[in-house]
Amino acid sequence: MPKPNLKGYETLEIVGNGAGSVVYKARDLATGQICAIKHVTRTTIRGIEKARREVRSGSRRLGKYARLNYRGYFEQIKNEYRVLRSLESNTPSPHIVRVNGLHTIRHFLRRHGYDLVMEHVDGASLRDKPDYPMHDLIRFYHEAATGLAYLHAHRILHTDMKPHHIFITRDGHAKLIDFGLARFFSEPSGRVQGTAEFMAPEQAKGLPLDPRTDVYGLGATMYWVFTGQMNRPALSGVTGGDGFTVGYAGRADSVRDKNPKCPPPLEDLILQSCERRPGKRPATMHEVIRRLNLIT
User: Fold this and answer.
1) What is the pTM of this model?
2) What does CATH list as the number for 123-293?
3) CB 3.0 to 4.6 Å from 155: which of 185, 201, 223, 237, for a disulfide?
4) Domains 9-119 and 123-293 share a fold
């Protein structure tokens, strides 16, 4: 797959990939600093969707849809830059990835893709390495909640919380990544997008969102982290395009039945965060943080 050819940067190696993107470790030749380049082009989108079709049965139609819908991936990377750039004038959060610049790639005057230059986060996501000691996992929960509280204070929702998007750095701290679906409080919900297993019911139904939507996403994420299993999802299946089937499975199963080491107050917080009705969840991320502070 072609590497970024961004003037002023030396591309070093692939460090990850996502929906339609490949992330490279790179060096800023002017400063010598290590950074990351999220590379999104028509070529990368086609390559990623081809690989997905080869390993996932029954996904040909959805793969074709995603491959042809490259504009959606372009909009996501532009949105990620827009949202993170809006935070530049504020004191940065150590739990939010930083962004440096967005560069348009053109072939014969035709827009071919984008390179998003951002902070290089050296570590692994909770999806790839969830087996930390209990006290570390509780601290990661707290740090992720702190990052989301920072976003909410700036009237931004992440809307795509999942284990993939919580990176644990080599020095042992949580950092939130991937803001392609993030939005400001004032913006309408738009088309339904997200990850079915971690998506709040109101998001699946295209209803207005608020900080309790991220409370749900983080709660469903931590349910998976502490149990190794999915919370009963808000979505029971994908019917194609934007069509999600919304299920009403009730409250999530016990966390302690699957992980007896989980403290009871932590189980209560996770299960309440995963409530189907927003009014039954903690009202704010600060309430989540307050309750995590009481867990020892």
Assistant:
1) 0.87
2) 1.10.510.10
3) 185
4) no
